[in-house]
Design a protein that fits this description.
Elements: H1 3-38, E1 43-55, H2 59-66, E2 73-78, E3 80-82, E4 95-98, E5 105-108, E6 114-119, E7 124-130, E8 135-147, E9 150-160, E10 180-196, E11 200-210, E12 245-256, H3 278-328, H4 330-344
Antiparallel strand pairs: 1-4, 1-12, 2-7, 3-4, 5-6, 6-8, 7-8, 8-9, 9-10, 10-11, 11-12
Helix pairs in contact: 1-3
Length: 348
């Protein structure tokens, strides 16, 4: 092999190596971009799809309503049922409400633990009456609010309040618009245990205690807000215990990749400023949409073009190398050595 042919071979090899590196780099860059997209962590959210909210509210209050003192009763309306109508005064008795998935939310972390929840129920009403109409109150749409294992129970309420009157001093004539009190608030707190399964989440809340509003004083006939629900009967010193709450939820988990914000568009130097031109705004929106579509098409074209260039580069690499070897006489030297070997061995 001559010095000239050696230089030719080395030059061809360098060119081939450069082309090969370029050809392989293009698809590698595309693959790296795909790997980057694949490495994004999916963001998952849990949604409430339905369920039941089971709460007897307060066993002693139910016993009081049906006892020989109040001689009362209650009635149901809306999305609520009784667990056992024949055992209304029983400790295990519960009102069974329907969970409203449209207004209920729940958050579950990556470890599968509930961190926050706001579970609401569909429209319902329990009307409690006693003392020949003196006691009259409406318990509406109960709910729970949770921060981890901390639970607060609440409900809507509709009652009538006359400042200074005791519970047994009310009459049906007091049920007028100016005495009506209504709203929604929490009135209890306790501890909850969450059980997270596939498509289900259960809550068992225990040690629920009544928490009155600071200004309520039943001895003076002063009721604040939600305390009208029980006519100010209960407080920390007098029968604060409430029934346990049990919530059974059906849930659905939805996951999606985080959205990468699009690059900011360059300002249009031809765009006029000032004025409220609706037609111009519509035209700009259409132009923006067209630019996004064009950008998307060019991106796909560029990806295909990169792979074509890569393939062409690899083929060209082998073609140049073969031509260089031929020009340098490498093929002739190899052929001559093979012939000499065959002659010496008397194989030809």
């Amino acid at each position: 092999m001559t010095i000239k042919s050696l230089r030719t071979t080395m030059t061809a090899g360098a060119i081939t190596l450069a082309l090969g590196s370029t050809a392989l780099t293009v698809p590698s860059a595309a693959a790296a971009e795909e790997e980057k997209q694949g490495s994004l962590t999916a963001q998952c959210k849990t949604f409430v799809t339905g369920g039941t909210f089971n709460w007897g509210v307060k066993n002693s209050f139910r016993q009081y309503i049906q006892g020989n003192i109040a001689r009362g009763s209650w009635s149901l309306d809306g999305n609520v049922q009784e667990s056992d109508p024949s055992n209304r005064a029983g400790k295990d008795f519960q009102f069974k409400f329907e969970v409203d998935p449209k207004t209920s939310t729940i958050e579950v972390n990556d470890e599968g633990k509930v961190t926050k929840a706001d579970i609401r129920t569909k429209p319902s009403k329990i009307t409690f009456e006693g003392h020949k109409g003196s006691l009259y109150t409406n318990f509406l749409n109960p709910y729970v609010i949770a921060e981890g294992n901390g639970i607060q129970g609440g409900a809507g309420y509709l009652a009538y309040y006359v400042p200074g009157k005791g519970m047994t001093e009310y009459t049906p004539e007091d049920r007028i618009e100016q005495n009506k009190v209504t709203g929604s608030d929490v009135f209890s707190k306790g501890q909850g245990t969450w059980t997270v399964g596939t498509g289900t989440i259960n809550l068992d809340a225990s040690n629920m205690m009544y928490v009155p509003k600071p200004g309520t004083d039943s001895w003076k006939g002063i009721l604040e807000g939600v305390d009208a629900l029980f006519m100010g009967l209960y407080n920390a010193k007098y029968k604060p215990e409430l029934d346990d709450i049990n919530v059974v939820l059906t849930t659905e988990e939805k996951c999606s990749l985080p959205q990468t914000p699009p690059p900011a568009a360059d300002p249009d130097p031809n765009m006029e400023t000032g004025g409220n031109d609706t037609q111009g705004s519509s035209s700009n929106n259409q132009g923006s949409s067209g630019s996004e579509m064009t950008s998307g098409h060019w991106k796909k074209f560029a990806e295909v073009w990169n792979y074509l260039l890569g393939a062409a580069g690899i083929l060209g690499m082998f073609a140049i190398l073969a031509h260089a070897l031929k020009v340098s006489g490498v093929f002739e030297d190899v052929s001559k050595q093979i012939n000499d070997f065959l002659h010496k061995g008397k194989l030809r």
